[in-house]
Specification:
Helix 3 packs parallel to helix 5. This protein has one domain: P-loop containing nucleotide triphosphate hydrolases (Rossmann fold, 3-Layer(aba) Sandwich). The chain has a 6-stranded mixed β-sheet with strand order 6-7-8-3-9-10, with helices on both faces. The protein is built from 7 helices and 10 strands. Helix content is about 30%, strand content about 25%. The chain is globular and about 45 Å long.
């Protein structure tokens, strides 16, 4: 995957550090402790995978890393900035400008009224503040790399689940985010399509993007630089 040169990468790319993070959710029988005093480091420009059984806290951890949620206690640092201490507006600005995120369910990532091509254009506009039609070749290249070139004018309802997942990836990386967070990015894909996404994740990290993903896919785990294991809301040292 080739960088378009607009976003700063390499040593200036953000690393993510979590210290003493606690997160609870309201459950039917009271509060559920999803993360319990978690420390974790995701160095800049690396491809990290968060692994663990279902219900271990992986998705909760990823939402904190992506600045979608705030911890109940502890700190989350993005490139040295304590994002738990900034205003909601500043968090939103940081997330829109620097973070690409893939939800686990493909449809949750997409806008039903936009074609595949328009998703990529919107992603670029959000992160680069360029007009929607800027750098059409880069948009076409991204869709082509993911096998979606012939589906560019289709809306999500007319795409298969696997095509939606690949479009979600394209939407998340358009405009070259400095941090990409992906929750089970290959779950809805066959071997060939999943392999394309795994290669793209590794390529992004090699060019300076900080990539954090959760996955049960052995191919994703094997391609990562490092794996963080989590169980019962706590990081498990190996």
């Amino acid at each position: 995957m080739k960088r378009d040169g607009r976003a700063s990468t390499g040593p200036g790319a953000p690393g993510i550090v979590l210290r003493g993070v606690v997160r609870r959710y309201a459950g039917a029988n009271g509060n559920v402790l999803a993360l319990d005093d978690v420390d974790a480091d995701f160095p800049a420009g690396t491809f990290s995978v968060v692994a663990g059984p279902s219900g271990s806290g992986k998705s909760t951890l990823l939402r904190l890393v992506a600045l979608l949620d705030r911890p109940e206690a502890g700190r989350v640092l993005l490139d040295g900035i304590d994002v738990t201490a900034v205003t909601p507006r500043k968090r939103r600005q940081l997330r829109r400008r620097h973070v690409g995120y893939m939800f686990q369910q493909p449809g949750d990532n997409l806008l039903e009224y936009l074609t595949a091509a328009r998703h990529v254009q919107l992603g670029r506009r959000i992160r680069t503040h360029e007009v929607a039609d800027a750098d059409q070749q880069a948009n076409d290249d991204l869709l082509g790399m993911l096998g979606l070139a012939e589906r560019a004018e289709h809306r999500p309802a007319h795409l298969s689940g696997g095509e939606q997942q690949r479009l979600a990836f394209a939407f998340a990386v358009a405009g070259w985010p400095r941090l990409l967070v992906a929750d089970e990015p290959t779950a809805a894909l066959d071997h060939v399509a999943g392999g394309r996404v795994v290669e793209a994740l590794a390529a992004l990290a090699s060019q300076g993007v900080t990539v954090v993903a959760s996955s049960h896919d052995p191919a994703v785990v094997a391609a990562a630089n490092r794996v963080v294991h989590i169980a019962h809301g706590r990081v498990v040292p190996l």
